[in-house]
Each structure stands twice: as C-alpha cells, then as structure tokens.
Amino acid sequence: MDVITVDHFWEYVSGKMIKEFYGSEKIDSLQSQSNKPLVILNENYILGVPRIRQVKVTENSCEIHGYFRRLFLHCYSIFGTQNEDRSSFGLNQPTAWTYTDATKTRSIRYFGTLTSYSGGGYYADYSLDANKTIELLQKLKDNLWITRGTRAVFIDFSVYNINTNLYCICKIIFEFLPPGGVTPNYQFTPATLTPLPNRWHWTMRILLYCFCIYALFCLFEEMREMIHFGTTYFTLFWNYIDMIVICLTCLLFFGTEYMRFTMGSYVESIIEKPSSYGNLEFPRVIYEGVKISGAVLLFFIYLRTFKYLNFNRRMAQLNNTIRKCAKDILGFSVMFFVAYLAYAELGYLVFGSETDDFRSFGQSMFTLLRTILGDFDYHKIHKANYIVAPIYFLTYIILVIFVLLNMFLAIINDTYAEVKIDIAIAPKEIQMTEFIMRKYRNLLKKLGCKVKQDDEKQILINTNINTIRDALIKCNFDDREIEMYFTRYDIDPLKDLKKQDIEKFYDVFIKEDLATHKTEDHPVTMKDFRRQDDKLVELENILVMVSQKVHDLMRAIENTQNKSLQL
C-alpha cells in the first residue's frame, strides 16, 4: 500500500508489517509467542526485536509571516540539529515519550530526502508476542505519539539467513515533510559480519596479512625516499598514489581485524537478550567502510599500473599523451566547467520547483552529466516551462556537447599525434619484450632446448628503419620532413621493417629513380625547341617593358629634382 498520510502509516505498521513480522496465523490466539523467534519469509530470523523511533522538531521552529500570525499559532520547520525537540511529551514515560540521546540508542545518522536525521529520539521496542506489539502500537496511536512536529519515523531491525550466512541490517523510513504528507523509503544492507572459518576464509586472511606486510615494506621505502629527496618527493604524482594505497591498506586491515574481534560480542549480546532490539548499525557502518576501502584500494592499485606501461613504445603513448596534454586540458576545463555550472544553476532556478531532476543544484549538475551520456527526459522540463525549455536544451547540446567536448577530443588527438612523432624519431632502445624474450631463449638454450635464433642478416633487415632515420638526420632532415618521408613511402615508424617491407620500399624508390632518369635522357624535339623559343621571346618583351618603365621613372625623378632646384 502507498503510505502518504498518518492514517496510512498506522494502518501499515499495525497491519501488514505485523503480519510479516509475526507470521500469517491468527494474531489474537491465546498461545503465547514469547519463546518463538520472529521469522520473515520462513528463512530469515530477526535478531532480537524491531524498534520504532521518531525524531521531532520544536514548536515555532520557523517564522510566521505577519499576514498570517493571527491565523496560525505554531509552525514546524525542517529537521535540524538546532531545532530538534528533546522535551518529554504525552504520557511522559520512558522511552517512547522521553528523549534518548544517540549515544544510548546507538543509532547512526540517516540522510533523507530533504535533510539528515540524528540517531537519537523517542523509541519503543517491539515484543516477541504479537498481541503485546499490537497493544503498544495502539497505545502510541491513541495518545498521539505522532504530532505535527514529527519529521521522521524509523523502524529498525536486523535479520540473519542461516542458509547463506548473511546478515541484513534493515531500516524502513517514513519522512513527514513540512508541506504535509509522508514519504516512505528503505535501506537494506546485506553483510557477511561473521564469516565461516573454512579453507577459503583462512586463505583470504593469510593473503591479507601478506599484503599488509608488503604495504609496511612500501611504507618504509616511501619514508626513506621522503627523507632522501626532501621536498622534491612531493612534486611527483605517483608518490601520492603510493601513499593513498598504503593508507587504504592500513584502513582495510584495521577495519577487518576490528570486525573480527568485536562481532562476536555483538552477536552474543543479542542472543542473550532475545527480547531486546538487535542493534547492528555500527557494525554495518564498519562493514561498509571496509568494503568501500577495499574497492577504492583496488581502483588505485589498477591506476598504479599505468606507471609501468612504459615497457614498450606503444604502451608508453598513453602515459606520454596524458602527461603532455594535462596542462592544456586543465586550462580548458576552467572554460568547460564555467559553462557547465552556469547551465546547472539556470536549470535549478528555472525548473527546480517543478522537476525532480533539478530539485537541487547538485542534482541539476548530475542531470546535465546524464544528458551528455544521452539520458535525459526533455518532456519534464518542457512541461515545467515550454518557453525556456527548448532554448535551454538546444543551447546546452550545441555549446557543451558539440563544441566544448569536441575541443577536448581535439586537444587529445593533436597531442597524441605529437607524441607519436616524438616516439618515432627518438633513438631506438632495447624494448622490455625483446629483453624478456632474449633472456627466455638463453634460459631454454642453457636447459638444452633447441631454440631458433634470428641470424644477423635477419636482425639487420628488421632494424633498417633506424638506419633510414639516421641517414635522413645526417642529411639535415628535420622531424617533420622525416615524418613526411615515412608517409610518402608508407613506412610505419613504430614498426620494425621486415624483409618484404624493405623490398617494397626499394621497388618504389627504384621506379621513381628510373622515371627521373628517363625524363632526363629524353631528346629535345622541334616542338620543345619552339616552345622554348616562344618563352625567350616573351621574356625579351617583358625585359623591354621593364626597361621602358625604369627609363620613365628616372625621367620623372630628374624632373622632380629640377623643380626643387628652381624653387
């Protein structure tokens, strides 16, 4: 059912949720269920009992406009730390009617739709007996436990599935918004809090310890480098990646060990007190922290491998391209983000009040990012403002996507072409792959295996590209001319020329040379002689014309000088 009012909330909590917690049998049976554990879907056992908790705001936590002060005596603002209500109310009995701090409830702050809610509040624990739980909820409803100041109600419980050894920390949230109405939400976090001590578990622990020992060794080496290089150490990008990897490794290790030593006490306390709330919120936070730390650690470890991609020229192109275009991209990013933030602010101000995708500035930025990827609902903004929407959408597509993003690609493509030329004209060094293959062949040869070795002639053929490059450099060819030379004869400067490539190159070269010599040995015909004679006559006429113009110019200069002398 859809929970949108307070009546819907009480109907859901006292009806459907009770049936899910306590089973489908008749709840008003005389048989006591105090010794029966709560089960969901026949296989998920609730640890302890659920807890219902609410947070409130104080009266007059917002300011009423002067026009309406006579009509309304009280107002209730959005939940915040400063306006949280901590006073007792109603029956003035613990703990549903008196405030309990988060240090005692041991609940974690929750980030909701409009704001975040503290871990304290007014709470009541369910019972193992369904009838007692129904009486508790009816008592809360009859005595107006939910008031105008209520901003959120939480139903917390934890379940355990014995078949998969999985815990699930559950939180069902009902936010009572200041404009009125209820917004339901949920948060289910599955977690392996107590792993089984099997072979796989011990293998993972041993690998974790080995990895931590290696991280300590790396930390020692980083400290030595820091002492040796001083401030220069902090100018290298990869050193920061190394420190992040080491810190995340330590965080992962301590979080894992903390869970291993403390989870037993949490579970034992829940088993000893089955009628109390089974609180596993703090272990959930630790588990999520460990999981996120491991994921981020793996990301940076993969990122760290980019440093070692320079084992040959092709793999080095990526690193060199990123390094060379970093400043250009950083400078252009300023222009890009100015336009991006301007459109995000415009969308938030124009469409934010009517469109969920632009309800906040951050959400507006995320929506525009989705637009770049092609995920955008134009009909929503068109419905919100049919005049601004088409102008906003078209200008964003043209300016940001068609112009600015393509300029990013142009910068990268241009830099990649420069890097490719630089690598091509650089002196050839022994490649890591060649070095490994050479050592591997030597090892097989020592073991008595017959290994086919490249003869000197074949090696010479395969390295002729360096000879061509060196010869062109000695002939005062610059880098661009060498690149044009390779392009003309279809030579890939990043590949070693094979025998067939050399033969093809020489065939083209010899054909061009023969064509040149054939042109030079061609006899002069009468037609060529007449054409040459016509060109000489034309040249003579041009010289006569130029001589006449020079003569006229000299005469004009003499006349000018005579006039100046007469004056």
Automatic annotation (TrEMBL):
Residues annotated as binding Ca(2+): D490, D492, D501
Superkingdom of the organism of origin: Eukaryota
Organism for this UniProt entry: Hypothenemus hampei (Coffee berry borer)
Topology versus the membrane: Multi-pass membrane protein
Residues covered by the Polycystin cation channel PKD1/PKD2 domain: 202-419
Protein name: Polycystic kidney disease 2-like 1 protein
Cellular compartment(s): Cell membrane; Cell projection, Cilium
Ranges that cross the membrane: 200-220, 232-254, 292-309, 329-351, 391-412
Cysteine-cysteine disulfides: C62-C75
Keywords, in A-Z order: Calcium, Calcium channel, Calcium transport, Cell membrane, Cell projection, Coiled coil, Disulfide bond, Glycoprotein, Ion channel, Ion transport, Membrane, Metal-binding, Transmembrane, Transmembrane helix, Transport
PANTHER family on file: AT14535P-RELATED, POLYCYSTIN FAMILY MEMBER
Family: Belongs to the polycystin family.
Pfam families with a match to the protein in the record: PKD_channel, Polycystin_dom
